[in-house]
Design goal:
With 370 residues, the chain is mainly α. The protein contains 15 helices and no strands. The chain folds into two domains: 82 residues, no CATH class; 271 residues, no CATH class. 65% of the residues lie in helices and 0% in strands. It is elongated, with a radius of gyration of 22 Å. It binds iron/sulfur cluster (2 copies).
């Protein structure tokens, strides 16, 4: 409704949904609203991050515009999510990245430019554009210390921002209705998150890219999620090989780090590619203002990390390895620098919202809850 801010508008729509309850079988959001009579700011933060944007309720609703009730739950909850991300971001001025794609693009471009310029300035052309073979070949181009120090600084910076935001979110979404729920709630939430249970959109799948449900979004999301997990395992194994077994990379094609990394890389390319295609094709009416821009930057950066990683693997014995390695590190820097100010944050707030939900449902239905 014109004149209402995001929280007032979410409150208005959720009160109508609570009277209607037609969509209560679709997702946890509708089961969670049944325990509330009106919706404070903390409730809206919580419910908006419980929403998985499957859009089932939008296509089922008989009160969407042009009806005078003007109900559009996926859109208003997407806009409330952006408010969450911005509010719990640190430093505050970088929180603007969630509403203005230009800020995220600038951060990503700055990271890529810094890594590229430093590499061109510090690595002699005869080294950068030559073939390097045998153990330690990558470190002949970029020294181990430079590679690890840059990555770890950005990695721990992102983790610190997430932890700070997650703690604030947890505190502000607490209400008399919501108790932590203990280990049981945490285990149930972990199962839901790992299996992407709520991306089933009430059963048949999410309504992407159009009005028909399908499992495709869940498949692309799973490929992206498990691709990241496999690549993390690959990096951890490479660390063990190098620092405990004293075996320097590159490793044989049949070795565990390469197998995990390659399978993860292919999964990431397919997953991010599919999600990007969905973004471009999907119905804009249920999308929140500003949200798609943030999603594009994240998916492109993640997809490019996977793509340049795969090219580096395939061409590692050629003279292209040096420039591909630098490009790969530049995209990793862009991904890490934008991670606290882009779509990555949804993993933090959504997981916390699902833990809250599982705890709340466990209290509301102690005998039926797993
Ligand atoms: S989205 Fe529409 S149909 Fe679904 S509960 Fe709300 S008002 Fe009812
Ligand atoms: S878009 Fe999907 S997840 Fe979000 S409130 Fe509607 S049915 Fe629930």
């Amino acid at each position: 409704m014109p004149g209402l801010d995001v929280f007032e508008e979410a409150n208005r729509q959720l009160i109508i949904c609570n009277a209607c309850r037609y969509c209560e079988g679709y997702c946890p959001v509708f089961r969670a609203i049944e325990t509330r009579r009106d919706f404070q700011r903390g409730d809206v933060f919580y419910l908006s991050n419980l929403c998985h944007d499957c859009r089932a309720c939008y296509y089922a609703c008989m009160y969407t515009p042009p009806h005078e009730f003007a109900i559009n739950i996926p859109k208003i909850l997407a806009e409330a999510r952006i408010e969450t991300y911005e509010r719990f971001s640190w430093p505050g001025f970088l929180g603007r990245a969630f509403k203005h794609r230009g800020v995220t693009v600038f951060l990503a471009a700055a990271a890529i430019a810094v890594v590229t310029i430093l590499s061109l300035a510090l690595i002699p052309p005869g080294t950068l554009f030559a073939a390097h073979l045998g153990p330690g070949a990558f470190y002949e181009v970029v020294p181990y210390f430079a590679m690890v120090a840059g990555g770890l600084i950005l990695f721990f910076y992102g983790i610190a921002v997430w932890l700070r935001g997650g703690a604030q979110f947890w505190s502000e979404t607490r209400s008399a209705l919501q108790q932590p729920g203990g280990f049981k709630a945490f285990a149930a939430a972990a199962g839901a998150a790992l299996g992407l249970r709520y991306l089933k959109g009430g059963g048949p799948g999410c309504f992407y890219p159009g009005e028909r449900p399908s499992a495709a979004r869940r498949v692309y999301h799973s490929l992206t999620f498990w691709g990241l997990v496999l690549d993390f395992i690959s990096t951890t194994l490479a660390f063990i090989y190098q620092d405990f077994l004293h075996l320097l990379p590159p490793y044989a094609l049949g070795s565990a780090p390469v197998i995990f990394g390659a399978v993860g890389g292919v999964a990431l390319i397919l997953g991010t590619g599919g999600l990007l295609w969905f973004k471009m094709k999907s119905d804009p009416d249920p999308a929140g203002v500003g949200a798609p821009g943030m999603d594009y930057v994240f998916l492109v950066a993640l997809g490019m990390v996977a793509l340049t990683g795969m090219f580096t693997l395939v061409l590692r014995e050629t003279s292209a390895m040096g420039s591909l390695l630098v490009l790969h590190l530049a995209f990793i820097a862009a991904l890490f620098l934008t991670a606290p100010y882009g779509k990555f944050v949804h993993a933090v707030y959504r997981t916390l919202a699902v833990i809250r939900y599982e705890g709340e449902q466990g209290q509301a239905h102690p005998s039926s809850h797993p």
